[in-house]
Design a protein that fits this description.
The structure holds two protein chains of two kinds.
Chain A: E1 9-15, H1 20-28, E2 37-43, H2 49-58, E3 73-79, H3 82-85, H4 88-93, E4 98-104, E5 111-115, E6 118-128, H5 131-140, H6 150-159, H7 164-174, E7 177-185, E8 188-193, E9 202-206, E10 209-213, H8 216-221, E11 225-229, E12 234-239, E13 242-248, E14 256-257, H9 259-264, E15 270-271, E16 274-275, H10 276-293, E17 301-304, H11 310-320, E18 328-330, H12 343-353, E19 354-356, H13 358-361, E20 366-370, H14 377-386, E21 399-402, H15 425-429, E22 432-433
Parallel strand pairs in A: 17-20, 20-21
Antiparallel strand pairs in A: 1-4, 1-10, 2-3, 2-4, 5-6, 6-7, 7-8, 8-12, 9-10, 9-11, 12-13, 15-16, 18-19
Helix pairs in contact in A: 6-7, 10-11, 12-14
Chain B: E1 5-6, H1 9-23, E2 27-30, H2 33-39, E3 47-48, H3 50-53
């Protein structure tokens, strides 16, 4: 069984001043990519042992925190969201001018290692298809594993090589799957993207440093500018003198994950030269075009399921010439419904995060747009909410438009899609879609 | 429960009708695969569509 991990976010930075607050903000800007775990590692050249001991005392409740005595890397990870978990004390104690951060659904990262190459910390976004195979091969050679995380396997592949660059090259030959990865070392922050470029990875530049991020929004919102995407197969080192390409593995083809533009990424990001917002507008416009081609549609307005459906609904509105109107109030403090583990928890969360605007929908006919159906939980609840008798008879007819084609399998846009056979979406996942719509 | 490969618009419409009935919508429409890819404004061969068409980009 291949491990399931996707939608994580990585961030790395090298600055001329203390970097932890930039990392903290950076991973907060990537929070939509995973809310289960978060972590920061910084490279502290002038480590203060006394302060570390004090700090360890203050954080002893969390057994996974790992501030080893006298080492160079300061390291704190948490279960939960960035702004909910990191304390001021921890942020003060994460010293140094360069570091990495991570937000995740499954694996607690970064992972820190004492190695022959010095102390390093590693974090990645993606999924390793052949991790069982790689682990077995290493275990046969006497290696052992702590949690069987993908990040553990990736780290060990790197650590076995004589230097980090060779390690990152070895990843490209040994690892099957997707990874956008950062490695914190004494020389700076290494960043590598798998040779297919499945997951996004953007480089940035500011007045006092350089950064790398799963999404450009973290760079933009830190007041830095996007430099370019890391190329598929490229190995980059970020240090005090800038962004350096230190390796380039041959890329057999490009295979950017289509879900990033349609679903995963934030609408203010640009990935591999394509604005997420523009792609979503086009997706909505294409849906409208299909309706126009198939005889048109009559409605008072087109409305999104927020926030995911907004770009799509705007595109639909622009192409169809039907007015745009919000019909839900978004509860910004609720989580995305697909992150919740049980069906009941998901339904409760889906119910909680969007409330109908009764004035907007009263006696109106709307076209409802969203990005996709993952489990069907959200769209079913929203249709039900809109169609209550209190909203008038017009609402009994409610066309729904979904920008993504139905999902079947593969690189797992959400972590539990294929692991929960009881979910309604499972049935939507089953068909294979080949060559239709010519 | 609809299963199997979908290769025609009629089959697409069939599953759309099935989903519409399940979620209580008047109708459901998805983008076609071609429309989806063209919205991304990049060559089809540069995008991983495995979640949609089942083709593994690693298979070459």
């Amino acid at each position: 069984m291949e491990s399931i991990q996707e939608n994580c976010g990585v961030f790395g930075i090298y600055t001329t001043r203390k970097c932890v607050y930039d990392i903290y903000q950076g991973i907060d800007f990537l929070q939509h990519r995973g809310q289960s775990y978060c972590g920061i590692s910084t490279y502290n050249l002038a480590i203060d042992r006394i302060q570390q001991i004090d700090f360890l005392d203050s954080t002893k409740d969390d057994p996974d925190n790992d501030l080893s005595f006298g080492r160079e890397i300061n390291h704190v990870t948490h279960h939960g969201k960035v702004i909910d978990t990191f304390t001021d004390e921890e942020l003060k104690s994460l010293k140094g001018n360069w570091g990495i951060g991570h937000v995740s659904l499954w694996e607690r990262q970064p992972m820190k290692w004492q190695t022959g190459l010095g102390e390093i910390a590693v974090a990645f976004s993606g999924n390793v298809i052949n991790s069982d195979e790689l682990m077995k091969e290493m275990m046969d050679r006497g290696k052992s594993f702590y949690k069987s995380y993908d990040i553990e396997t990736l780290s060990k592949v790197i650590i076995e090589e004589p230097d980090i660059e060779s390690g990152l090259r070895a990843l490209a030959t040994k690892v099957k799957g997707a990874y956008s990865l950062v490695v914190l070392t004494k020389d700076g922050v290494y960043a590598a993207r798998d040779k297919y470029g499945f997951r996004p990875l953007m480089l940035g530049k500011g007045t006092d440093g350089y950064a790398v991020s799963s999404e450009s929004r973290a760079i933009q919102n830190l007041g830095m500018e996007n430099v370019r995407d890391v190329r598929p197969g490229e190995i980059v080192l970020i240090n005090e003198t800038g962004i350096h390409t230190v390796g380039q593995v041959e890329s057999p083809r490009t295979a950017h994950c289509a879900f990033e533009w349609a679903y995963t990424a934030s609408i203010d990001s640009i990935i591999d030269g394509v604005y997420v917002q523009e792609a979503r507008n086009h997706l909505g416009a294409h849906l409208a075009q299909r309706d126009l081609d198939e005889g048109g549609i009559s409605a008072d307005f087109v409305s999104p399921v927020p926030l995911s459906g907004i770009g799509h609904a705007l595109g639909y509105h622009q192409r169809a010439g039907i007015n745009y109107q919000e019909v839900f109030l978004y509860h910004r403090y609720a989580d995305r419904s697909y992150m919740q583990v049980t069906q009941i928890a998901r339904e409760k969360m889906a119910k909680r995060k969007l409330s109908v605007l009764p004035y907007a929908v009263k006696d109106r006919k709307i076209v409802l747009c969203d990005d996709s159906i993952v489990r069907g939980t959200q769209i079913m609840n929203k249709v039900r909410d809109l169609k209550t008798p209190a909203h008038g008879k017009s609402m009994s007819a409610l066309p729904a438009r979904l920008s993504c084609i139905p999902v079947i399998s593969g690189y797992r846009p959400g972590p539990m899609m294929n692991s929960l056979p009881d979910s309604s979406c499972r049935r939507v996942i089953l068909p294979r879609w080949i060559n239709y719509g010519k | 429960m609809p299963t199997g490969d979908i290769t025609t618009m009629d089959q697409l419409r069939e599953i759309e009708a099935w989903i519409a009935q399940r979620i209580g919508a008047e109708s459901v429409k998805f983008n076609t695969l071609d429309a989806f890819v063209s919205a991304l404004m990049m060559p089809r061969e540069d995008v991983c569509l495995r979640c949609f068409d089942g083709k593994d980009p690693l298979a070459g």
